[in-house]
From TrEMBL:
It comes from Variovorax beijingensis. InterPro entries: PsdUridine_synth_cat_dom_sf, PsdUridine_synth_RluA-like_CS, PsdUridine_synth_RsuA/RluA, RluA_PseudoU_synthase. It comes from the Bacteria. It holds the Pfam family PseudoU_synth_2. This is Pseudouridine synthase. Residues 98-244 form the Pseudouridine synthase RsuA/RluA-like domain.
Length: 303
C-alpha cells in the first residue's frame, strides 16, 4: 500500500500493524488471528473486533464471523498491557517541513519492538509533534544515545533514505573504552568481515573480504580509559561495538560484547558509553549543507 493512506489512523502515536492472510483452511479470519498470535487471547481479539479496531486493507471491519479470505491484508492496533516508562527524555533539535532531528537517550529503542511500544522514540515523537507520517531514516541501537533523523513527508522520503546506502552522509560517534598503560595510538582505520553470530542478537567477525570499515581517532586518555571518535564508513549492525571489542577495547557498559547479558538487565546508572554525536550532509531536497550535533557528551572516569 505504498503511497496510500492506511485503513486505520495512527492512535496515540502508534500506527496500525499489518498481517497478510496466507493460503489456508481457517474458517474465519478471527480463528487465523487467534492461532497466529497466541499471546493475544480470544477475548481480546473479540473485543478489538467489537470496537472495529480490526479491518482489512480496504477499511472493511473484520467481524468474529467473517469468513477467511486469502490473500488479504488485515490491520490492527498492537497493544501492551503494562509498559514501564524509560526514565530519560528525548530532545527535538531541529524540525522543518521535511526533517526532524532528535537526540535519543540511552535505553530507548528508535521504533516499537518487543516489550517497547509507547516507550520508543518514534511513538514519543509522533505524540509530541502530532506527525502521523513520521518515519526514521536510519536506526541506532537501543543502548546507544544520540542523533536520529526522521522523514516528515512521504513524497521526499526516498531522497533522504538514499543518502545512507550511497554514503552521502557523514556520521561521527564518541565512545569511552578501556585503555592500557603504555599504548599511545589506535589504528586510523579498521576493516573486517561481519556476519551473524549464533545468537540472533549479536554479530561476529570471520575471515574473508571485509564488508565493514570504521575510522578511529584517539581524542583523550585519562588513567585506564580513553575517549575515541568513531566514524563508520559502512553501516553494519553493531559495527562500532564489534570493532572496538576486536581491538581489545570493548565499549564501556556494553550489554552485548564481549559478554551477552540476560534480558531485562538494564542498569540505568550504567548506560553504554557510545554516543551518535554528529551528522552532516547536503540536503537532497533543498541543496543546503546541514550539520547537527548532539548536546550530550561522554565523560572519562577520573583516575
Amino acid at each position: 500500500m505504498t503511497g496510500q493512506r492506511l485503513p486505520l489512523p495512527t492512535r496515540d502515536g502508534v500506527g496500525p500493524s499489518c498481517v497478510g492472510l496466507p493460503q489456508g483452511e481457517w474458517p474465519t479470519i478471527a480463528e487465523f488471528l487467534i492461532e497466529r498470535f497466541p499471546a493475544i487471547t480470544r477475548e481480546a481479539w473479540m473485543a478489538r473486533m467489537e470496537a472495529r479496531d480490526v479491518v482489512d486493507e480496504h477499511g472493511v471491519p473484520v467481524t468474529a464471523q467473517r469468513r477467511y479470505q486469502a490473500p488479504l491484508r488485515v490491520y490492527y492496533y498492537r497493544t501492551l498491557d503494562a509498559e514501564a516508562r524509560i526514565p530519560f527524555d528525548e530532545q527535538v533539535l531541529f524540525q522543518d517541513d521535511q526533517l526532524v532531528v532528535a537526540d535519543k537517550p540511552p535505553f530507548l529503542p528508535v521504533t516499537p519492538t518487543g516489550k517497547y511500544l509507547q516507550e520508543s522514540l518514534l511513538v514519543r515523537l509522533k505524540r509530541k509533534l502530532k506527525l502521523d507520517d513520521l518515519v526514521p531514516l536510519h536506526r541506532i541501537d537501543r543502548s546507544t544515545a544520540g542523533l536520529v533523523l526522521f522523514s516528515v513527508r512521504p513524497e521526499t522520503r526516498g531522497a533522504y533514505q538514499a543518502m545512507f546506502p550511497e554514503r552521502r552522509i557523514d556520521k561521527h560517534y564518541e565512545a569511552v573504552v578501556p585503555w592500557r598503560p603504555g599504548v599511545s595510538s589506535v589504528p586510523g582505520t579498521y576493516r573486517s568481515r561481519l556476519v551473524d553470530d549464533d545468537h540472533f542478537m549479536r554479530v561476529k567477525e570471520e575471515a574473508g573480504e571485509p564488508n565493514s570499515e570504521t575510522r578511529i581517532t584517539l581524542r583523550k586518555t585519562v588513567g585506564g580509559h580513553a575517549l575515541l571518535e568513531l566514524s563508520p564508513v559502512t553501516g553494519r549492525k553493531h559495527q562500532l561495538r564489534v570493532h572496538c571489542m576486536a581491538l581489545g577495547m570493548p565499549i564501556v557498559n556494553d550489554p552485548f560484547y564481549p559478554v551477552l547479558l540476560p534480558p531485562d538487565s538494564d542498569d540505568f546508572d550504567k548506560p553504554l558509553q557510545l554516543l551518535a554525536k554528529s551528522v552532516a550532509f547536503e540536503d537532497p531536497v533543498s541543496g543546503e549543507r546541514r550539520s547537527f550535533t548532539s548536546p550530550r557528551s561522554l565523560a572519562l572516569p577520573p583516575r
